UniProtKB/TrEMBL annotation:
It comes from Zeaxanthinibacter enoshimensis. This is TraB family protein. The lineage of its organism: Bacteria, Pseudomonadati, Bacteroidota, Flavobacteriia, Flavobacteriales. InterPro entries: DUF5694.
Length: 269
């Protein structure tokens, strides 16, 4: 029964995705936030990666064109996926980039390629890291799921993937971001990184759920890092992170009166 219901739910995901509905209005309360999820544009230890040559001139130009779109948000603060302990170095490097946008980065990622350029075009002065690292035993849970022959987990992992109107791998960088940031795909990232693990357990135990809790824990700590930033009601915050974190932040901020999320697609369309 569970497997049949899961397959039905997954098949429904193939329907065309409507434009997102989170919008900024004149009456909205809280600090405006542009919460953008991305794939990692440089080296990453993540299990799932996107092929992207960060040194390719065409790719850099495409990313900078995206930055020009995002800069219309006019953020006063940028938050990125870096641990707060490196904030001094981050701020120093960002200042250097603003003074010399042609500066060379040996191993650039989405921070150097996209966040810095958004900030430079917007005149943003403050940038902060809000990441928090934790370890996960995903291989161990996957191995346990296969040993237990867990049908719901196996069915989901077999069918899991981004849903879009075009093939993700062949899409442009802009279209990749459009696909990633759809609610249906942000939901997918929460499920594939955490919730589906709750189906993996030996009798009377919670091996998968406990591993999933670590990912919730990490994202709650990252959200706490955001909440500890010196923000004022006049600030506008651009958050750039791997999209699984964006998905959790979407949920956290949707219930938090201190923030209101602007329509991401208003800056990607």
């Amino acid at each position: 029964m569970i497997l049949g219901l899961l397959v039905l739910l997954l098949s429904c995901r193939e329907e065309p995705v409507q434009k997102e509905t989170i919008t900024e209005t004149e009456t909205a309360e809280g600090i405006p936030v542009l919460n953008l999820g991305t794939f990692h544009m440089g080296y990453t230890t993540d299990a799932n990666t996107t092929e992207f040559d960060e040194h390719d001139k065409k790719n850099r130009e495409e990313v900078h064109a995206i930055a020009a779109r995002l800069a219309k948000f006019k953020p006063t603060v940028i938050a990125v996926e870096m641990e707060p302990q490196y904030n001094d170095r981050l701020q120093e490097q960002y200042r250097a980039y603003r003074e010399n946008p042609s500066m060379h980065f040996e191993y650039p990622d989405e921070i150097e390629l996209l966040a810095y350029e958004v900030g430079r075009l917007s005149g943003t002065e403050r940038i902060y890291g809000i990441d928090h690292q934790m370890g996960y035993d995903y291989p161990g849970i996957d191995s346990l799921a296969r040993t237990l022959d867990t049908p719901a987990y196996k069915a989901y992992m077999k069918m899991a993937g981004y849903r879009g109107e075009q093939d993700y791998d062949s899409a442009s960088t802009l279209d990749k971001l459009r696909i990633i940031n759809r609610n249906i795909n942000l939901d997918f990232l929460i499920t594939v990184n955490a919730d589906i693990l709750t189906h993996v357990a030996t009798e009377g135990n919670f091996e998968g759920a406990d591993e999933a809790a670590k990912f919730y824990h990490r994202n709650l700590r990252m959200f706490s890092n955001l909440n500890q930033l010196p923000l004022s009601p006049d600030d506008r915050v651009f958050i750039l992170m791997g999209a699984s974190h964006t998905a959790f932040f979407r949920d956290f901020m949707s219930r938090n009166p201190n923030y209101h999320m602007v329509d991401t697609f208003g800056f990607l369309d």
